[in-house]
Amino acid sequence: MGQFLSRFGIRLGTRINEHEINRIPIHHKCRNCGQGCDPTKSTNTCVNAKFTRTGTKDQVSIIRPIIPNDKVRWSTSFDYHPIEFTSEKIRTSTKEYVDRDPRQDPNVQIPWNLDDRLCDRRSYHGTYKIIGRVPQNPCGRTGITGRGHLGHFGPNHAADPIVTRWKRDENGQEIIHPSTRKPILQFVAIRRKDTNELAIPGGMVDKKEKVTDTLQREFQEETLNFPDLDERSKHNLLATIKDIFENGGIRIYCGYVDDPRNTDNSWMETTAYNFHDGKNEHLAKINVHGGSDALCAFWHDLSGEVSLFASHSEFLQRVADIHRAHW
Ligand code: RP5
C-alpha cells in the first residue's frame, strides 16, 4: 500500500484526508486473495481464493464474486450482486465488543464516525457514509456485505509492531546483500494460525485500549513465550520492551488495510510502528517464540520477494526505505 500511496503524493504515517483518499486506487489486488488475479478471466471465482477470505476451517466457505479493478469505486456503475455474509461466530456472539446488526433490529443505535470511548469508530480516511443503516466501505466494493468475520461495522482498528535488527554474521558484522549492496534487515515475524501466512505480529485494538498499548500487548502475546526464562529474567525483559515501546518507535502507516476479511460494511484499519534495535542492544537479542494466534515466531529477512498477510509487505518496504536497507 505504501508504494502506491506515495505515488499519489501521500506520506505514510500521516493521517489521510477525504480529498486524498479519493485519489487512491486501493484495490490493486484481487479482493479474494490479495494477489494479482486476472479479473478479465472467464471465471466468477478467484483462482487463489482461500478459505480465510470467507470462512474458517469449521465454517461454511463463501467465495466472493470478483470485482474488476475499474468497478471497485462506488461511483462507477456496475451490475453488482454482493453476497451477504456474517460468520456464525459473529452473528451469535454476545460479547460486548461485537456489534448487533442495526438492519435487523431498529433499536440498535451505533455512534458512527465517533469515539464513544468504548470503541473508536472513526476512520483514518475521514467521515464514511451510512447507507441502509450501516457504513459503506470508503475504498469501494468488496463482493460481500455484512461483517464477514469482523466484530464491528465500519473500521475495525488494529496495531502492527514491526521490530527490526540488522542481520549479522558470526563476528557481528552487518551482512550486505550481494545484488543491492545494501545491509539486510530482519523483523520479528509470525506464522498466523488462521491462514498459515507470514505476518507482522499485529492484532485488534481492544475496547478502551490505546494503540500504543495494543502494540506492546500483541507483540508480547504472539512472540514472547519465554519457555526458558526464569521469573527475574522474564521481568527484566518485559521492562525493557515496555520502555522501548513507550519511548521509541517510528510511525510507518495508519489507515486502510487490504485485509482478506474486509466487506462492503466492515473493514480493517491499522497503525504500524517500527521499533529498530540498530546496535544489537536490546530487542535484537530477544529469542522469540510463538504464542496466542501465532503458530510460531522467528526473525525473518526483509525482502520484496517474501509474500505476507494483508498489506504487511508494503509496511515492511517502507521500513526498509527508512533504514536504507535491502528490499
Ligand atoms: C491486519 O490484521 C492488521 O494489519 C493486523 O496485523 C491484523 C489484525 O488482525 P488479527 O491478527 O487480530 O486477526 O489487517
TrEMBL record:
<dbReference type="Pfam" id="PF25969">
    <property type="entry name" value="NUDT9_N"/>
</dbReference>
<dbReference type="GO" id="GO:0047631">
    <property type="term" value="F:ADP-ribose diphosphatase activity"/>
</dbReference>
<protein>
    <recommendedName>
        <fullName>Nudix hydrolase domain-containing protein</fullName>
    </recommendedName>
</protein>
<dbReference type="InterPro" id="IPR000086">
    <property type="entry name" value="NUDIX_hydrolase_dom"/>
</dbReference>
<dbReference type="InterPro" id="IPR015797">
    <property type="entry name" value="NUDIX_hydrolase-like_dom_sf"/>
</dbReference>
<dbReference type="Pfam" id="PF00293">
    <property type="entry name" value="NUDIX"/>
</dbReference>
<dbReference type="InterPro" id="IPR039989">
    <property type="entry name" value="NUDT9"/>
</dbReference>
<feature type="domain" description="Nudix hydrolase">
    <location>
        <begin position="166"/>
        <end position="322"/>
    </location>
</feature>
